[in-house]
Design a protein that fits this description.
alpha/beta; GroES-like_sf; 29% helix; NADP; Quinone Oxidoreductase, Chain A, domain 1; 329 residues; six-stranded parallel sheet
Length: 329
């Protein structure tokens, strides 16, 4: 028996329960990990609230990220051995391969040996955010030196990761946040410019920063009415990648900006990377090299002990954090 977090109904953080569960041996292509650290993600909150792209079947596990020590391997596993220090690249199904627990069975292709310079805490805080940012900014937008990228909801772990991915190729980051309360923290985290959207004119500020050209790339997790403003702040032939839906409202389609500037607006999910073996290999190489060199440096907002999993996810939902929330075992 091992302690696993499960939930038996949709709801707030109170539905998360730590239960004693019998975990089977790893399947032929799976690695069993003794978990030392768990990275928390907003997708898990949405899954728990029945607002995600997949629906839970009860009782359900959850969790996309973790780091720990290999405890056992399946008969077909070739790349790992018992005792290896590893971290988890998010899988396609958190209910099947949930990471919230003392043990987790994970498919081999979603496991990596993390660089020796990373702690378990840092390793558990890396792969969701860097795969998401890399897939959008590098793989799809072809971000390059001299480009400007607008990163919305910039204090999230993915937002901070986007700063580092952008800087690794010589691009400049314009971070947006609702008020000035997080301005200095975002600058300290690597943003080149910060715009408080409730207090400043987004379009005017972006045009001032970019010398009137606009931003070629937008990396947006909010959606809703703000998309029209973002489109008006973009450069000709720019691309807006929508990877979230934090706004509960539907915004107008910015047809005039799209037509006048030949813009591309695209929905984007990290699954586009992890569902493609060659793209996943490219992501692993870019991110592993960045982590080892220090160009990518996971920012941890706060850690919690495993027994405080409810408090940890409440803090995630508070939007007070700058960076990643990690649960330690």
């Amino acid at each position: 028996m091992t302690r696993i977090v499960r939930f038996h109904e949709f709801g707030d953080a109170d539905v998360l329960k730590i239960e004693d569960v019998e975990l089977p041996a790893p399947a032929a292509d799976e690695v069993q990990i003794s978990v030392r650290a768990i990275g928390l993600n907003r997708a898990e909150v949405m899954f728990r609230r029945n607002a995600y792209v997949k629906q839970a079947q009860f009782p359900s596990r959850l969790g996309y990220e973790a780091a720990g020590i290999v405890r056992a391997i399946g008969s077909a596993v070739k790349s790992f051995a018992v005792g290896d220090a590893v971290s988890v690249i998010p899988t396609e199904d958190m209910a099947r391969w949930g990471t919230y627990g003392e043990l987790a069975n994970i498919p081999e292709r979603h496991v990596v040996k993390h660089p020796r310079n990373l702690s378990f805490e840092q390793a558990a805080a890396s792969w969701m955010k860097y795969v998401t940012a890399w897939g959008a900014l590098i793989e799809q937008a072809k971000l390059a030196a001299g480009d400007f990228v607008i990163v919305t909801a910039a204090s999230s772990s993915v937002g901070i990761a986007a700063f580092q991915v952008a800087h690794s190729v010589g691009a400049k980051v314009i971070a947006t946040t609702r008020t000035t309360a997080k301005r200095q923290a975002l600058l300290d985290a690597g943003a080149d410019h910060v715009i408080a959207t409730a207090e400043e004119d987004l379009v005017a500020r972006v045009m001032e920063i970019t010398g009137g050209q606009g931003a070629r790339v937008v990396f947006d997790s909010i959606g809703g009415p703000a998309i029209e403003q973002l489109a008006n702040a973009m450069a000709n032939r720019g691309i807006l990648l929508e990877y979230g839906a934090l706004s509960p409202d539907t915004g107008p389609f910015p047809q005039f900006a799209v037509l006048a500037k030949s813009l591309t607006l695209k929905g984007y999910l990290y699954n586009e990377v992890i569902g493609d073996d060659t793209a996943l290999d490219r992501a692993k190489a870019f991110i592993s090299d960045g982590l080892e060199s220090g160009r990518l440096n996971p920012l941890i907002s706060r850690t919690f002990p495993f027994d405080q999993i409810q408090d940890a996810t409440r803090f995630l939902e508070s939007n007070e954090q700058i960076g990643k929330i990690v649960v330690m075992l």
